[in-house]
Amino acid sequence: MTPDARRIIFENVSKFYGEVLGVNKVSFSLESGITSLVGPNGSGKTTLMNLLTGLIRPSQGAVYVLGLTPRHPIEFFRQVGYCTQFDSFPPGTTGYDFIYWPLRLHGFAHDQAAKLTNEALERAGMAQVAKRKVAGYSKGMRQRIRLAQAIAHHPSVLVLDEPLNGLDPMARAESIALFEAIAKQGMHVIISSHILEEVDRISDRVVLMSSGYVVAEGQIREVRREVRDHPMQILVRCSNAARLAAAAFELDHVVEAKILNDGQGVLVRTRDAEQFYLLLNKIVSRGLVEVDAVAPADDDVNSIYQYLIGSDGGPA
Amino acid sequence: MAVYKRRYNPYAGSLTPEWSRFFVLTRYAFADLFKSRFFVLLLILSLIPTLFFAGYIFIANNKTVQLLMQLRSSDFLAVESRYFILIMTVQTQVAFLLNCWVGPVSIAGDLTNGALPLFLSRPFSRTDYVLGKLAVLGLLLSAVTWVPCLLLFSLQSGLAKDGWIWSHLWMVVPIVLCSAIWILMLSLLSLAVSAWVKLRIVATGAIFILFYVPAGLGEMFNAIIGTHWGRLLNFSYMFRLILAKGFRDRTWFLITSDWNEIPVPVAWGVLIFVCLLSLVILNVRLRAREVVRG
């Protein structure tokens, strides 16, 4: 079967470093947009990224990036841009050189490489400081120059290892805006990050990893729905909280209904959110309560991370 | 789920030939090397012996200058194969010293700075990487070995006339071949050391140790066992053996022992073995990621 030329596909991929497990039996298929790899240190995120960028080969299974494999490096690496997490640069290198020379490795002639370098510097907001040595850059500037290098050759897949580390809030917001802009053009953006709030905000889907295994993959709300061991939390801001709590308790799947301290709402924990929403519809249509707002309280990456991986980083 | 318009188009223009891309690394390394004043000074110093050799050839072929300097033709070493062995011996030692300065930092810097993932996540293989680094040392050491040697050969051909060039044209082959194996061995060995040892001073020391300690151990082995095969560990000796054979000069003073005690093909084999061993080390060390165990 010909692999899909628009998707990133991992087919039962395992990678062992001698006896050390990198990742084990990983399978997923990603479409364009922003995908976040989330997991504790040592969970296999960087191994997965190295596999994705062709830096290492799987011990078992196959990786297809837009239908290509690293066995065809010229086409493969033209499609992939990789921003590593290493914060070290060749001594004496300027920001311009750091982007220009790798472009020459890609096979761009001088004029084209210079044009693409300037374009990437502009996009990353680094044009003003391009001629300065990277050694004199702040941590945020270093992140941005790495990002500029990763996007300079116009890849279709952008792989970013911890791209938000060390950035101040302003630089972080600018970087996220750049990722979103790139993704909206139809690129694949794969981000590894520990900053769960931002992952939650920008990601279309997540791949949750622990101890070399993928513990969940998909759109965040879908993943949350699949986590049945932990009842979903729904926050309802309403006028008659006691009435709603009493009605909720009549349902078998509701395990907790807690009236908020201000008495203006209920936090419900239920094993079947759909049934609860039906009940809520009925109550509201009968005029028993006036609802101001209904929102899931734990269908974010942070909650999923806590439920599936736990604070100790081990599998839940 | 987000819906994206596919407005993005990757670059589809022309590219430079794939085979030539390793030179990008070479150009970058040269640009970096020539920023160092010490390196430029070292390079200039390594070409000074060539100027002396050229001056000698000029005087040896110019009766007027000899008369002015009150020299007799018999005072001169004839500019024959032995003279070119001398030039080669001096220049290959100069190449060794130059290599000890440049070689140890070739790869160590990239390993320290985590630059390998940067290079290898491009359409650029480990072979390209080694070729790029090898080309730096190859070009540099060529500039102080066979290139000046051939220039001196041309100078002598031009000054000697009387068909000297035709009767000595065969010397071009040993000049190029002997330089090639010496350059290849030095370059690969120093790259392998550079891939293993990150500090320049330690790496430079390691190269000296690799050349002189095994040679000493070999001589000890010879003295104890009463054989001559211990000299296989003396790479400089193996090279001089090849050089003497190449220039058809059995009496060359650097070969102190019997000509036939170590066959020349064995000497070639030793140097080629060192090259292959260095390649194996490079293959082990040059990875796009570092695995931290334990």
What this model shows, in words?
- The complex is a heterodimer of chains A (316) and B (294).
- Chain A has 316 residues and is α/β, with parallel strands linked by helices.
- Chain A folds into two domains: 8-225, 3-Layer(aba) Sandwich (Rossmann fold), CATH 3.40.50.300; 231-297, Alpha-Beta Plaits (2-Layer Sandwich), CATH 3.30.70.
- Chain A has eleven helices and 13 strands.
- Chain A has a six-stranded mixed β-sheet with strand order 5-6-7-3-8-9, with helices on both faces. Chain A has a four-stranded antiparallel β-sheet with strand order 11-12-10-13, with helices on one face. A three-stranded antiparallel β-sheet of chain A has the order 2-1-4, with helices on one face.
- In chain A, a hairpin with a 5-residue loop joins β11 and β12.
- The model of chain A is unreliable at 312-316 (pLDDT under 50).
- Chain B has 294 residues and is mostly helical.
- Chain B has one domain (40-285).
- Helices cover 67% and strands 0% of the residues of chain B.
- Chain B is built from 13 helices and no strands.
- The interface between A and B is large, with 50 and 41 residues.
Helix and strand arrangement:
The complex is a heterodimer of chains A (316) and B (294).
Chain A: E1 8-17, E2 20-30, E3 33-38, H1 45-52, E4 60-65, H2 73-79, E5 80-83, H3 95-106, H4 110-123, H5 139-151, E6 157-161, H6 169-184, E7 188-192, H7 196-202, E8 205-210, E9 213-218, H8 220-226, E10 232-238, H9 241-249, E11 254-259, E12 265-270, H10 273-285, E13 291-296, H11 301-308
Parallel strand pairs in A: 3-7, 3-8, 5-6, 6-7
Antiparallel strand pairs in A: 1-2, 1-4, 8-9, 10-12, 10-13, 11-12
Helix pairs in contact in A: 3-4, 3-5, 4-5
Chain B: H1 22-33, H2 37-60, H3 63-68, H4 81-102, H5 108-112, H6 116-120, H7 126-142, H8 146-160, H9 164-168, H10 172-196, H11 200-225, H12 235-246, H13 264-285
Helix pairs in contact in B: 1-7, 2-4, 2-8, 4-7, 4-10, 7-10, 8-10, 10-11, 10-12, 10-13, 12-13
